[in-house]
Design goal:
The chain is of the alpha/beta class. It contains 14 helices and 13 strands. The N and C termini lie far apart (77 Å). The chain binds adenosine-5'-diphosphate and cytidine-5'-diphosphate.
Length: 425
C-alpha cells in the first residue's frame, strides 16, 4: 500500500531549474514498484555521499510568502549551508491536478553529513510561525538504488514528524512552463489596482511604499492622451534608447519622459532589493504615474518616452520564466496584452542590436552595471527571452528597428517611422 499521505491524486511534480536551459522533472510515486522503471533518475540528485534536500513555499501572489522565499534564499547562502549548491525548484500539479504552484529550492550538499540537515532544520525553525515554514524534503537512496523523498514537518520546540515517504520517479517536462499560469498575478500586473494592492501590503515594512502610493493616488485616473503623438522607445540596455530619445526630442521639439519617472526613481534601489512580486508592482505603478505625465504633455507637444509598459512586462516575464526561450508563454498570452486602464502610446519602437555590438556599447559607456545588466551579459538566454517577450507584445505591439548602424542613420530611420505612423508633426 502507498505510504500515508501519498495518494495517486495528490501527486506533485517538481521541476528543477538547473543552470542549463532544461527543466529537470520528477514526480513522487506511492508504491515502490510503480512508475519510472528503466528511466534514469533526474541527474540533479547527486550520488552518495552527496545529499539533497528541498524546500518549497506557496507561489501564490502573497507578500509574506514572497518575502519568506527571498529570506530562505539569502539564508541558504550563509553558515554551513554556504557549501551547498542551491537550484530553483518549482512544485506543480501533474496534468489535471489542482494543486497551486510552489516555489523553492533543491539543495545539493556535495559532502553529505548531518551538519547540513541540522542547519536546514534550524533555519526553518528560525522563520517563525507566520507564514508557516515549509516542510523539509530529504532525499535518500533505497537498497536497490532507488530514490525516496521524506517530507518532514518540523515541530517548533524540536523534533519532527514524517508527513510522507514516496519514491522519486523521473517525469516528462510539462508542456507549459509551470510558472506561466501564475505570471499574471505574481509578476505582470494588468491593472493599476492589481499593482497598487501589492504595494499597499508593503507599507508597514517599506516606508517608501506609502510615498509611492500617495503619488499614484494624486494622478488622475484613466488619463487620456492629448492630440500630439506619443512615441515610446524600448530595447535592452545599451541598445541606444537614451541616444535616440534625446535626438528625437531635439528633432521634434518633443518632451522627453522616462519610466520609472523621476519622482519615484530615488526609491528604485529599495524596491529592486525586494522580491519579484513587490519589485514588479513598483515598476507597474511607475507606468501609471508616467501615463498622467504623458496625458498632460501630449496636449502641448509631441512626447517621447524612454521605456514604458513593454519594459516592465518583458523583464518580468523573462526573469520569472527560467530556461530556454521556448518556455515563454505562447504568443497572444494575456501577459503580452496592454493593460486596459493604461494610456496607450501611438507608436512603440524596439531598438535591437547584435549581442556583440551591445556588449561593445556597454563597455564603451563604462558605467557601473546593475545586477540585472550583469546577468544579461552572462546569460544570453535571458537576453533572448527579454527580446522575444518584447516582440510578442500586442495592442500596441513593438515595431523593431535595427539600431546597429550609426547614430545618424538610426535617427533617420526612427524619424521616418514616426512620420509614417503619426503623420506630419
Ligand atoms: N548608433 C550607435 N552607434 C554606436 N554607438 C552608439 C549608438 N547609439 C548609442 N551608442 C552608444 O552606445 C552606448 C549606449 O547607448 P545608450 O543610448 O546609453 O543606450 P540605452 O539608453 O539603451 O542604455 C552609449 O555609449 C552610446 O553613446
Ligand atoms: N518601465 C520600466 C523601466 C525599467 N524597468 C526595470 O528597470 C531595468 C532597466 O532600467 P535601466 O534604467 O537600467 O535601463 P536603461 O535605460 O539604463 O537601459 C529593467 O531591468 C527592468 O527591470 C521596468 O521594469 N519597467
Amino acid at each position: 500500500a502507498p505510504p500515508a499521505g501519498c495518494s495517486a491524486q495528490a501527486r506533485p511534480c517538481f521541476a528543477v531549474e538547473g543552470p542549463g536551459a532544461d527543466l529537470v522533472c520528477f514526480t513522487l510515486s506511492g508504491s515502490e514498484g510503480a512508475g519510472g522503471s528503466g528511466r534514469p533518475l533526474p541527474r540533479c540528485f547527486l550520488p552518495a555521499p552527496a545529499r539533497c534536500y528541498s524546500l518549497c513555499v506557496p507561489a501564490a501572489p502573497s507578500v509574506p510568502a514572497a518575502r519568506l522565499h527571498r529570506r530562505l534564499r539569502q539564508r541558504l547562502r550563509q553558515g554551513p549551508l554556504a557549501r551547498c549548491r542551491v537550484l530553483g525548484l518549482l512544485c506543480y500539479s501533474a496534468p489535471g491536478g489542482q494543486a497551486a504552484l510552489e516555489k523553492g529550492f533543491l539543495i545539493q550538499d556535495p559532502q553529505g553529513g548531518a551538519e547540513t540537515e541540522r542547519a536546514l532544520e534550524e533555519l526553518l525553525r528560525g522563520q517563525g510561525a507566520l507564514p508557516p515554514p515549509p516542510p523539509l524534503g530529504v532525499y535518500e537512496a533505497g537498497e536497490r538504488g532507488e530514490l525516496w523523498q521524506c517530507l518532514w514537518a518540523l515541530r517548533g520546540a524540536g523534533g519532527r514528524d514524517l508527513l510522507r515517504r514516496a519514491r522519486v520517479v523521473a517525469a516528462e517536462e510539462p508542456p507549459l512552463h509551470p510558472a506561466v499560469p501564475g505570471l499574471r498575478h505574481a509578476a505582470v500586473f494588468l491593472s493599476l489596482e492589481a499593482a497598487r494592492s501589492v504595494v499597499e501590503q508593503c507599507t508597514s515594512f517599506i516606508p517608501e511604499a506609502t510615498a509611492v502610493l500617495d503619488l499614484v493616488d494624486k494622478c488622475p485616473k484613466h488619463s487620456k492622451k492629448g492630440d500630439f503623438p506619443v512615441i515610446v522607445i524600448e530595447g535592452l540596455d545599451a541598445t541606444g534608447k537614451t541616444t535616440v530619445t534625446q535626438s528625437v526630442k531635439d528633432s521634434l521639439n518633443a518632451l522627453l519622459l522616462r519610466s520609472p519617472p523621476a519622482c519615484i526613481s530615488q526609491w528604485r534601489k529599495t524596491f529592486d532589493d525586494e522580491p519579484t512580486l513587490i519589485r514588479r508592482a513598483f515598476y507597474a505603478l511607475g507606468n501609471y504615474i508616467v501615463a498622467s505625465e504623458i496625458a498632460k504633455a501630449s496636449t502641448e507637444s509631441p512626447v517621447v518616452v524612454d521605456r514604458y509598459w513593454h519594459s516592465t512586462a518583458a523583464y518580468a516575464i523573462a526573469t520569472e520564466i527560467s530556461g530556454k526561450v521556448q518556455n515563454l508563454p505562447p504568443t497572444q498570452h494575456e501577459v503580452y496584452q496592454w493593460p486596459e486602464d493604461l494610456l496607450k502610446p501611438d507608436l512603440v519602437l524596439l531598438l535591437t542590436v547584435s549581442p556583440e555590438e551591445r556588449i561593445r556599447r556597454l563597455q564603451g559607456r563604462g558605467l557601473e552595471k546593475t545586477e540585472e545588466e550583469t546577468e544579461l551579459e552572462a546569460n544570453s538566454l535571458f537576453r533572448q527571452k527579454v527580446e522575444e517577450s518584447y516582440k510578442r507584445m500586442e495592442n500596441p505591439g513593438c515595431q523593431e528597428v535595427d539600431a546597429s548602424p550609426s547614430r545618424e542613420e538610426v535617427l533617420r530611420t526612427v524619424l521616418h517611422l514616426i512620420k509614417k505612423h503619426c503623420g506630419s508633426l
